[in-house]
Amino acid sequence: MIICDLKACTGCCCCLNVCPSDAIYMVEDEMGKTVSQIDESRCISCMLCVMKCPVNRSVSFYRPHACYALWTKDHVDRESCASGGVATGFSRWVIQQEGVVFGAIFDAKQRLCHEMVDEENKLEALKRSKYVQSFIGTSYRRVKEQLVMGKYVLFVGTPCQIDGLHGYLGREHETLVTVDLICHGTPPAAYLREYVHYTAAQRNNTADHVTFRGGKDDYFLTLWNRHDVIYRKEANLDSYFTAFLYGLIFRDNCYHCQYAKPDRVSDITIGDFWGLDRTTLSNSYDGKISLALINTKRGQEFFARVNHLFTWETRSVEEAIDGNPQLQKPAVKDRDRERFEKAYKIGGFVKAIHSTTIPRRIKIAKIRRIATSPIRIARKVHRRIKLKMDSKHQ
User: Fold this and answer.
1) Which of 90, 137, 270, 393 has CA 20 to 30 A from 81's CA?
2) What is the DSSP letter of 237?
């Protein structure tokens, strides 16, 4: 039995969670992405996996009716978060109400998984953008368990993960608030796993932590061994980060994503407020600013409870949509995608990246960086002044 077209599969794990006989498990296909497999010996042919799958069923979308630019009042979170700290602020409030939060966390083996957090001192692991797909596992089942217990639940994830949760639950829950991230596309976890291992091994080391954004390491791919940095490069000088930014390494479904549009599937949509006209802000601020789109009545009620944690102001929904391509259309497939796919199937991620034009693009970025460095610019200015002075004395 086939649950859905594997090229359209988002890896949301709805099928795994909904299966009453635990006959479904996830595997990595030839392109490294997680897809479902069925143990036919355990399958009872109930067809729940097919019916609940977001690829097969009708999806409920909501048009955003309010938009806010905001940043947290907590100065520690402002420094350490990738954007304005909105997800952390939401999460902290829910935990203070004795609720629980589900979000993406790197485990001890550097696998990004959705986990439940119920203590404020564990929120640090949820912070910062993580440019790789997180594994849902049986998180949807745990969400339901918490809801049945009467707990307030905040679930933060990509739109396809939110929709997977909706498919699994099958109905609305008053104590559940869903927050989707404006997603540019999700690379399979296999890519980052191989790249981190290779990059650390090149330095005769191992990495136990990876960051992409937040604090001093904003838009740097940084590998850590405990508290020591073993590798650190700017986004446009690192192979993995560059491939991500160019849209080369996403799952197949990301290039045809049904969620990449103004209408949303969650209560609240968050992300960086790209395209924000800062000159018109009532509260002048030069730091990182988050965007929050309010999509449902529950989302508006939730925001009313937590907005005291932020400096915020109302903006137009159109401003948010105009400034963010992923609120308009899916990611554009990079011109090297076919070459990458062929090479990956033969030699894995590192060899596949080197078979594309990514190394050349990084080389060009390096040249441009040198050409625009402060020292080089200062030298140019000095030479021009000297030439002018010399010409006056002639």
Assistant:
1) 137
2) G
Q: Are 195 and 244 in contact (CB under 8 A)?
A: no
- How many beta carbons lie within 10 A of that of residue 39, not counting itself? 12
Assigned token pair, 218: 């904003």
Over 70: is that where the pLDDT of 86 sits? Answer: yes
- Domain match, 196 and 84 both: yes
Summarize pLDDT for 98-110 with one digit per residue, the tens.
999 999 998 877 7
Residues 367 and 312 in one domain: no
State how far the Cα of 293 lies from the Cα of 339, in Å rounded to an integer. Answer: 37
The answer to whether residues 99 and 174 belong to one domain is yes
- The beta strands (E) that lie in the chain are given as 24-28, 34-38, 66-72, 100-106, 112-117, 153-157, 176-181, 209-211, 220-225, 228-234, 268-272, 290-294, 310-315
Distance of alpha carbon 294 from alpha carbon 304, whole angstroms = 11
Structural domains in the chain (count): 2
Provide the sign of the torsion angle of the four alpha carbons 280, 284, 290, 294, taken in this order: negative
Name the residue among 247, 271, 331, 297 with its Cα closest to residue 85. Answer: 271
48 within some domain: no
Residue 61 and residue 263 in contact, taking contact as beta carbons nearer than 8 Å: yes
* In a domain? residue 51: no
Residue 3 lies in a domain: no
Sign of CA pseudo-dihedral 337, 343, 344, 350: negative
Question: So what's the pLDDT on residue 118?
Answer: 94
How far apart CA 251 and CA 289 sit, in angstroms, is 28
In the numeric block, the tokens 């404020």 are attached to 120
- Whether 203 shows a pLDDT value over 50: the answer reads yes
Residue 193 dihedral angles phi and psi, to the nearest 5°:
-60, -50
Give tens-digit pLDDT for 332-367: 999 999 999 999 999 999 999 999 999 999 999 988
Spatial neighbors of 5 by CB under 8 A, at least 6 apart, are 55
Q: Please give the DSSP secondary-structure letter assigned to residue 62.
A: B
Same domain? For 364 and 259 the reply is no
- Residue 378 shares a structural domain with residue 261: no
The distance in angstroms from the start CA to the end CA of the chain is: 88
Is-contact 295 266, C-beta < 8 A? yes
The whole domain housing 369 covers 357-394
The answer to whether 235 touches 220, Cβ cutoff 8 Å, is yes
Distance between CA atoms of residues 254 and 185, nearest Å = 5
The stretches of 170-285 forming alpha helices (DSSP H) are 189-201, 239-245
